[in-house]
Amino acid sequence: MWEYAPAPESRDIANLKPNYRMFVDGKFVEGTGEPLKTINPGTEEVLAEVSTASTSDVDTAVKAARRAYDRVWSKMPGSERAKYIYRIARQIQERGRELAVLESLDNGKPIKESRDVDVPTAAAHFFYHAGWADKLGYAGYGPDPKPLGVAGQVIPWNFPLLMAAWKIAPALACGNTVVLKPAETTPLSALVLADIIQQCDLPPGVVNIIPGAGDVGATLVEHPDVNKVAFTGSTEVGKIIQRQLAGTSKKLTLELGGKAANIVFDDAPLDQAVEGIVNGIFFNQGHVCCAGSRLLVQESVADELLEKLHARVSTLRVGDPLDKNTDVGAINSREQLAKIKELTESGEAEGAQRWTSSCPLPDKGFYFAPTVFSNVSQAMRIAREEIFGPVLSVLTFRTPDEAVAKANNTPYGLSAGVWTEKGSRILWMAQRMRAGVVWSNTFNRFDPAAPFGGYQESGFGREGGRTGLEAYLDV
Amino acid sequence: MSDRVSVAKTYKLYIGGAFPRSESGRSYPVTDSKGGFLANAAQGSRKDARDAVAAARKAFPGWSGATAYNRGQVLYRVAEVLEGRREQFISEVALSEGVQAKKAQSLVDTAIDRWVWYAGWTDKLAAVLGSSNPVAGPYFSFSTPEPTGVVAVLAPQQSSLLGLVSVIAPVIASGNTCVVITSQDRPLPAITLSEVLATSDVPGGVVNIITGRTAEIAPWLASHADVNALDLTGAPESLRADLERSAAGTVKRVLRNKVGEDFAVTPDMSRLRAYLETKTVWHPMGV
């Protein structure tokens, strides 16, 4: 194997400040909640102290959003809203390197991913949706669809900036104002986005960003003056929010967990499939709701594929998220690392065969070596529960019908992968997957023009494309 | 005319294409708007609801897998058969809802036309709601609407035929299957409609109809893990929030209808969209 010299990106580029404050009504203000310390999961060092929102701060933020909605944003022509959103897209591109380094510091993801995926896709989401702002009458929801009002949005820690973009861009384009709560462990990039929003002169109150833990999110979605709730996160919390909103008139969209099947047929180009499998489960340390965490491989090629897979996964470099050569970065938090360990232990206890890469791991920080379980049966927890880490469960099948049955044997339904050279089989399989996204001969592709979202317990509503606008319109 | 004794109809449930009595053996009297006895209707139970869900699930692959053209013809066939029994429905609706014959006639005519309207949608949904996605890379990406699955429908309490048709047709037009709890006090047109469905090439199990107490049966459907969506249109006001809370247990799609929905006006696409998922498929392009 090649030896690599370290190629770290400079952390100075992140312009890290010792303190970050919440962004309400166009100003950075001290929250009155208990401040939190956000750490670098790659080293466990404290990065910054962040003020959080109390219940009254949530109310202040919602009031600011309501004022901005009533007085400014809902009255502004779409063509003018569009120009603000385009500005945000451009500033994200201009400050892309700063955002990428900051994201890798706060989240633990490899710099090559934050640099090449998270930040450019976030900019693309604003750019794409900006164009819709003055064309909503062409979106298929009637000649003049109306916004909903104030959107309360709660996002996860796996793609902190990108999820903020997925939420804020369509909300603004459709004419809503926003109160967004970033995840407790990754608040920094959203607050730099707030800085960008301020520099773009977005009218005060149109976007408000209030850091805090789950209780802040619960307060936000329950606030009586919130008209729309959008949540991305675990299925468990999604259900709680759906319950909380029962009996109200709030519009809800949920993007929740998954346990995607990545299906490899015996005629698939195996080397190419191996790359897709690796991308499917080890991208972003497996902290991906649509990760291809269940590999279903046709029995006749299972041994050959597994051998190739082990060889390829052995070459993955795990370590410093800021190193440009790093393939797998740090697990986002101690809690998540404990959850991954607990589930992998259950896999061993239930009789699956564990293979773990012998790659060296740093002494400090939260790391988990890429792991592949074979001989997995459908009843095992590692085949049913979302691990949200770099852990792949391998099952086999003999016939296409069996592949379909196993792939759909889950309460989730976010994504699926299909690998075969036969075009008719791809379309046949794609039609039968009970999942919102089907990647065929590829995996983990995202684009603002392509609707994304789940079936069943992976949530409802779509983000992206014309379809995604429905979530933010009164239709 | 001789004083012939007419043959009274036994009103039963409609599950999996058959007409069983309630497994509970229960029935309840149905009266006209003035309180006069009309018939005994089956009082469906929790077990009946579960049987109906199983039938709907079993019918789902076939119905959702049928071509849109085929589904369109089946829905149109329902309109044809309904038209043929127009007089029967006019008299049942007049009795059930206590309206004049002229009003009942207009309700039935609109109900027939509603089937025609939805029949025409089946093979246009994908063109109107789907898309080819211009993604920034060498991929072909397209999105297409697909049915959500099994839908539990609480039919409107007042509008015994037109309201009922207006909530069933959009569910099955796109390939979903359903379990319907009829209007509690005006169930007779629903049972007669099931006779129409049974003779219109609608496969057994696509529509399952249960009469009885809405408040008794609805909670079992709201919490049932094999139900994918819930239409609250006919839910008692006091029960709506509870049903929604139960539905959250398996992240069901819940349609909260607009209060006082006017079924006489031509609908928009919202009831169709409520039970559709969008699936996005990607494939690389290259040689």
| CATH-defined fold name of the largest domain in chain A | Aldehyde Dehydrogenase, Chain A, domain 1
| Approximate strand percentage of chain B | 15-25%
Number of domains of chain B: 1
> Which CATH-level-2 architecture of chain B?
3-Layer(aba) Sandwich
Mean pLDDT of chain A: 97
Shape verdict of chain B = globular
**What would CATH call the homologous superfamily of chain B?**
Aldehyde Dehydrogenase, Chain A, domain 1
Number of helices of chain A: 14
**What would you call the quaternary organization?**
heterodimer
Residue stretches of chain A low in confidence (pLDDT < 50, at least 5 long) are none
Radius of gyration of chain A: 22 Å
- Greatest chain-chain contact: A-B, 46 and 38 residues
Helix content of chain B: 40-55%
Number of helices of chain B: 10
CATH homologous superfamily name of the largest domain in chain A? Aldehyde Dehydrogenase, Chain A, domain 1
Question: Overall 3D geometry of chain A?
Answer: globular
For the record, the CATH class of the largest domain in chain A is: Alpha Beta
Q: How would you explain this protein's 3D organization?
A:
- The complex is a heterodimer of chains A (475) and B (287).
- With 475 residues, chain A is of the alpha/beta class.
- Chain A has two domains: 11-256 and 455-472, Aldehyde Dehydrogenase, Chain A, domain 1; 261-440, Aldehyde Dehydrogenase, Chain A, domain 2, CATH 3.40.309.10.
- Chain A has helices spanning 55-73, 78-94, 96-107, 111-132, 160-173, 188-199, 214-222, 235-244, 270-282, 299-314, 334-349, 381-384, 400-407, 423-432, and strands at residues 19-20, 22-24, 27-29, 36-39, 46-50, 150-154, 177-181, 207-209, 228-232, 251-255, 261-264, 294-298, 353-356, 371-374, 391-397, 415-419, 437-440, 459-460.
- In chain A, the strands form four sheets. In chain A, strands 13-14-15-12-11-16-17 form a seven-stranded mixed sheet, sandwiched between helices. A six-stranded mixed sheet of chain A has the order 8-7-6-9-10-18, sandwiched between helices. In chain A, strands 1-5-4 form a three-stranded mixed sheet, with no helix packed on it.
- In chain A, a hairpin with a 6-residue loop joins strand 4 (36-39) and strand 5 (46-50).
- In chain A, helix 4 packs parallel to helix 5 (160-173).
- Chain B is of the alpha/beta class.
- Chain B has a single domain, classed as Aldehyde Dehydrogenase, Chain A, domain 1.
- Chain B contains ten helices and ten strands.
- Chain B has a five-stranded parallel sheet with strand order 7-6-5-8-9, with helices on both faces.
- In chain B, helix 1 (46-65) crosses helix 8, helix 2 (68-84) runs antiparallel to helix 4 (101-119) and helix 4 (101-119) packs parallel to helix 6 (162-173).
- The longest helix of chain B has 20 residues, at 46-65.
- The termini of chain B are far apart.
- The mean pLDDT of chain B is 96.
- The chains are: A alpha/beta (475), B alpha/beta (287).
- At the A-B interface, helix 8, strand 17 and strand 18 of A face strand 4, helix 9 and strand 10 of B.
